Amino acid sequence: QVVFALNQTLLQQESLRAGSFQIPYTTEDLIKHYNCGDLSSIIFNHDTSQVPNFINATLLAHERITAQEIDSYFRQELIYKRNERMGRRVKDLLEEYPDKSFFFAFGAGHFMGNNTVIDVLRREGYEVEHTPAGQAI
């Protein structure tokens, strides 16, 4: 699986450099959605994910299965479990120091798709509100 993932990553990078593959979003697009607080409008898919996309139509059947296994593993380990840990850490700090104020900063990837840090906190009963860029806290 590691060799497969490395080969697919190299193929994608070669396609990017050759101009035969383009990323369907720009960094500016992500910043705009983040600042507007509407990351829910970005569907959690490979286009906006931090997980490499190994699944494509050119794969053979056994390669597609390997790609799907890797995709599932990455999503679970690199995104869902990470957000769960971070959300629990925020919750623990808030509960341990109820009279303190906190400022938590996370990268935009922690707020896209399902099972975000915000989802974790809301499941724990916290109310989370977006503060637009430029608005005083």
Automatic annotation (TrEMBL):
A GO CC term attached to the entry: plasma membrane
Matching InterPro entries: TIKI1/2-like, TraB/PrgY/GumN_fam
Broad EC category: hydrolase
GO biological process, one term: Wnt signaling pathway
Cofactor: Mn(2+); Co(2+)
Highest taxon in the source lineage: Eukaryota
Record note on cofactor: Divalent metal cations. Mn(2+) or Co(2+).
Family: Belongs to the TIKI family.
Protein name, as recorded: Metalloprotease TIKI
Species lineage: Eukaryota, Metazoa, Chordata, Craniata, Vertebrata
